[in-house]
Specification:
The complex is a heterodimer of chains A (588) and B (149).
Chain A: H1 3-29, H2 33-51, H3 58-83, H4 91-109, H5 122-149, H6 155-180, H7 187-206, H8 210-221, H9 223-231, H10 237-252, E1 256-260, E2 266-270, H11 274-282, E3 288-293, E4 296-301, H12 311-379, H13 381-414, E5 423-426, H14 427-441, E6 446-449, E7 454-457, H15 459-477, E8 483-489, E9 495-502, H16 535-546, E10 549-552, E11 561-567, H17 576-587
Chain B: E1 2-3, E2 6-14, H1 18-29, E3 36-42, H2 45-53, E4 66-69, H3 78-87, E5 96-100, H4 105-114, E6 118-121, H5 122-125, H6 132-140
Parallel strand pairs in B: 2-3, 2-4, 4-5, 5-6
Antiparallel strand pairs in B: 1-2
Helix pairs in contact in B: 2-3
The chains are: A alpha+beta (588), B alpha/beta (149).
């Protein structure tokens, strides 16, 4: 069999197959796909008729008239298909209808067969020119419109529209060649090849094979990586949907991407408003992929513009579904953590308010008791006698202790609520002042202050901290002539470090954490000792509120060493990032 | 008014706590060489203002020479009394000493701004010699203004 025959058979197969495909497509999709079915159906009938050989006569003439009519209708039906999507311009439909109608009428009226060779009458040649003109113009118009109309639609849809347009152009070229190129020679080969090529391009737009769809999706799929990055920042289901759904829709070329919860209620949707989404799902759309998630479903709805779904589309949606589920789990964990933190904070606030209120209320009776004790002491000394006076002493000492406890409790509950604004504070200056104050009340103790750095902390709290630490060292030293050192040590990046060390009795290693608990005292409370045991707990609260750490250093020689790390002032920070963080915290 | 040779100094103690009223009265009793101190007490801010304005049931009250004023009272508190007295043209010049259980700088500043003459804490005052400075200044000093009768 000659090559040309093979090619012609191939052409028939391709174009008839295309016609059948277009009809099936219409049966599945409905709507404008009908026009496509009409166009390709027409072409299919044309090539089938072309295979039927009829002897010269009225039958052959009729056959040719039908062929020409259908040929004229192909671009017209394509035009009508395109009009379903882009309806700009009022003039074109009129022109197209008129021209196509003219061609059809002319053809049907024509007494002789249509041919384009030189000895055909003028009115026949004119018809051919008009037909080719109509084809080229309409095809070009449709192709342009379809090319432009793809804007705003997902990449897969765009590619499909453009394929249709390209196919139409190629087919128009085939017709041009068939009509005006000299018969014989390569002309038939060119025509047939172009027709087959056009058919294949049309196939692409109807049923693109998987690798073609993947290629079309590649640009959209690269956004999957961006999505992962953005997803890391989401903390609520709404944010997750906001990031994911548009990407899902874009990548698949879907009309809508919808997220539902376990009861089927719409959580969020892209491409359609949530109310519309419910209607859309209820109307049982033709093409829908549903991926069940632990906390609901991810659904994509295809429209009539996108190709049929294949396995890889479903796999893709499933992959998106997994990512969505992970992100939703993370969001729910965030929500739980937020709730728990709020509860803890509100409990802590309640407790603090309780402590504050109680301490205030307990002050009055304490003042009363102390006042009456003083009265007894001054006015009833004789009646009480020596023993009575001693009992009064014990009373007074205990109530004084209560008073000190209340004052400290009040102060403790205020830390973190009042006096929190940090500043650059010279620790050495504060330590020297504290040392001077304490030297007057404890003359036998020695307090040395080294070269301490500056720190970023509230000045009032800094003073409280250092005073408590040094006082504690003196009280727990165990002897009057205890020696206390306050000196700096090298700190890590962004922090300053110092120690308060004494040479007193020291703290056994197993108790080094206990001393920071409120009211923990390691020894007996001695007679006049007003030390309430809150001091170190307060130190810990101050240090932690400032963003530092405090601990008792493990058994290094006699005595106790308490090491404190506090934040360094911003301009001393080595890294810009840390400085920025500090500034932000200071001004928030 | 001079009785038996010694001038009388009247003091009004304003405090909602009955024990603190007793302790204030006793603390005052221990002072006043050369003067006789008469102490009257009221238990609320409302009563204090009624007393000073000689409204019922205090219509028979005499204007005090000095007021010892607690801060934390339910209803009309010490700050409100202070403000009302300083705003009243007839009571403006009344010497007022705040006597409070709070030593918080915020309270001291606020009382200062509202025009208190002096600020004492109960912790320091309810002990031997606690009222000494008050007595020395406000009672021995013969320049104490005689209240408008």
């Amino acid at each position: 069999m000659a090559l040309i025959e093979i090619l012609r058979l191939l052409q028939v197969a391709v174009l008839v197959g295309l016609g059948v495909l277009a009809v099936f497509h219409w049966r599945r999709q409905g709507g404008p796909a009908g026009w496509l079915a009409a166009s390709f159906g027409a072409i299919a009938i044309v090539v089938v008729l072309g295979r039927i050989d009829l002897p010269e006569g009225p039958a052959a003439l009729l056959k040719q008239k039908v062929q020409v009519t259908l040929l004229a209708l192909f671009p017209y039906f394509l035009f009508l298909f395109q009009r379903a999507f882009t309806t700009r311009g009022r003039l074109m439909p009129v022109v197209a209808t008129v021209v196509t109608g003219t061609i059809i009428v002319w053809t049907l009226v024509l007494p002789v067969p249509v041919a384009a060779d030189a000895d055909a009458p003028l009115y026949v040649r004119g018809l051919v020119v008009l037909l080719v003109g109509q084809w080229v113009v309409l095809s070009g118009y449709v192709a342009t419109r379809l090319w432009q109309g793809g804007h705003g639609h997902p990449p897969v849809v765009r590619a499909r529209m453009r394929s249709l347009g390209v196919g139409a152009i190629v087919l128009a070229l085939a017709l041009l060649v068939a009509a005006f190129a000299p018969a014989g020679g390569v002309t038939p080969y060119v025509t047939v090849t172009l027709a087959i090529g056009a058919g294949l391009v049309f196939y692409l737009s109807f049923v693109p094979p998987a690798f073609v769809r993947a290629a079309w999706r590649r640009r959209a799929a690269s956004s999957l990586w961006d999505v992962e990055r953005e997803l890391a920042l989401t903390t609520t289901p709404e944010e997750v949907a906001e990031v994911l759904l548009p990407v899902v829709r874009e990548t698949l070329g879907a009309d809508a991407a919808i997220l539902t919860d376990t009861s089927g209620a719409i959580v969020a949707s892209d491409g359609v408003a949530p109310a519309g989404a419910t209607r859309m799902l209820e109307s049982d759309p033709l093409q829908m992929i549903v991926v069940p998630l632990g906390s609901g479903s991810l659904i994509t709805v295809q429209g009539h513009l996108a190709p049929y779904y294949g396995r890889d589309e479903e796999d893709l949606v499933r992959a998106f579904g997994t990512i969505t589920q992970l992100a939703l789990n993370r969001a729910s964990l965030f929500a739980q953590e937020r709730e728990a933190r709020k509860e803890a904070e509100s409990t802590r606030d309640e407790l603090e308010a309780l402590v504050y209120g109680l301490s205030h209320d307990l002050k009055s009776p304490v003042i009363t008791v102390l006042g009456y004790i003083e009265l007894l002491r001054s006015d009833y000394a004789a009646e009480l006698g020596d023993e009575g006076m001693q009992f009064l002493d014990r009373l007074q000492s205990n109530v004084t202790y209560m008073e000190a406890l209340l004052t400290d409790l009040l102060e403790l509950s205020r830390i973190g609520r009042v006096q929190t604004a940090p500043a650059a504070v010279d620790l050495r200056e504060i330590a020297q002042e504290v040392a001077a104050e304490l030297s007057t009340t404890h003359p036998k103790a020695t307090i040395e202050v080294g070269d301490l750095p500056a720190s970023w902390i509230n000045p009032v709290r800094a003073r409280q901290l250092i005073r408590n630490l040094v006082e504690n060292a003196i009280f727990h030293g165990g002897r009057d002539d205890v020696s206390v050192r306050v000196e700096a040590e090298p700190g890590e990046l962004g922090m300053v470090r110092f120690v308060v060390a004494d040479d007193g009795v020291g703290i056994p290693a197993e108790h080094s954490e206990r001393v920071f608990a409120i009211f923990e005292r390691l020894g007996e409370r001695s007679g006049t000792d007003a030390n309430t045991g809150i001091g170190l707990a307060m130190c810990r609260r101050i240090v932690e509120a400032a963003g530092g750490t405090i601990a008792v250093r493990d058994g290094t020689g006699p005595g106790t060493t308490v090491e404190v790390a506090l934040p360094a002032p911003p301009h001393q920070l080595q890294s810009v990032g840390q400085a920025y963080e500090r500034e932000r915290e200071a001004t928030s | 008014m001079i009785t038996g040779g010694m001038p009388v100094r009247r003091v009004l103690v304003v405090d909602d706590d009955p024990d603190h009223r007793v302790l204030a009265r006793v603390a005052l009793r221990h002072h006043g060489d050369g003067v006789r101190i008469e102490v009257d007490t009221v238990s609320s801010g409302e009563d204090a203002l009624a007393y000073l304005r000689r409204e019922e049931p205090f219509a028979e009250s005499a204007q005090p020479h000095l007021v010892l004023l607690d801060l934390r009272m339910p209803g009309v508190d010490g700050f409100a009394v202070l403000r009302a007295v300083r705003d009243d043209p007839e009571l403006q010049a009344l010497p007022i000493i705040v006597l409070s259980s709070s030593d918080h700088p915020d309270d001291v500043n606020r009382a200062d701004k509202l025009g208190t003459n002096s600020y004492l804490t109960k912790q320091q005052t309810f002990r031997p010699g606690g009222m000494a400075a008050v007595a020395d200044y406000w009672f021995e000093n013969s320049l104490l203004p005689e209240p408008v009768v």
